[in-house]
Amino acid sequence: MTTEVINSKVQFQNIHQDLIEKCISGDQKAQFQIYKLYYKAMYNISLRIVNNPMEAEDIMQESFLSAFEKINTFSGTVSFGAWLKKIVVNRSIDAIRRDRKVIFEDIDSLPEIEPYCYEDEPGKEETTQRIQEVMAVINRLPEECRIVFSLFLLEGYDHDEIGEILSISPTTSRSQFSRARQRLITELNRASAKRSYRII
């Protein structure tokens, strides 16, 4: 890693920390800068959980308000983005629990479907199309499966963390992920017999 890259990272971290400290002091300009840095990512996180653009927008806005109200509790033991993300995830889950009936059931002995990779390397347009197909199927998954699948595969939480977030056991989280994975592969392969998808 070059000295220029290291210095650039240090400078960014210092600027970022300065913004957080200004936010703690109630600086609204700093709050707006933080908002601009994170709002798109936080909106997308909420959208992947609640699957409703207007609801995700509301949750994102409420999460920022909550974050700024309690920003003095930010300890710095994790990145600010991770701290803010947890607020967004928790509020998104709370919204689903409040407005919808979602039951996270344990599922025993799901049959295994062995996916395989494409033989040919797809072009850019085809890759974009496949991503759109995958996301469309994810959005059609049963809600409890979609939430676990999104938290694990898209947001990077492990099953212990998902269990804590959703108040379920890690085993139930794994079962829901397996169910989502199985259904995703089945639907994608059914949509096109010439294609198969590898979902980890």
CATH topology of the largest domain: Arc Repressor Mutant, subunit A
- Specify the number of helices: 8
Oligomer: single chain
Question: Tell me, what is the CATH class of the largest domain?
Answer: Mainly Alpha
Number of domains: 2
What would you note in describing this structure?
- The chain has 200 residues and is an all-alpha fold.
- It folds into two domains: 3-99, RNA polymerase sigma factor, region 2, helix turn helix motif (Rna Polymerase Sigma Factor, Chain: A), CATH 1.10.1740; 103-200, Arc Repressor Mutant, subunit A (Orthogonal Bundle), CATH 1.10.10.10.
- It contains eight helices and no strands.
- Helix 2 (28-50) crosses helix 3.
- The longest helix has 23 residues, at 28-50.
- The radius of gyration is 20 Å and the shape is globular.
- The two termini are 31 Å apart.
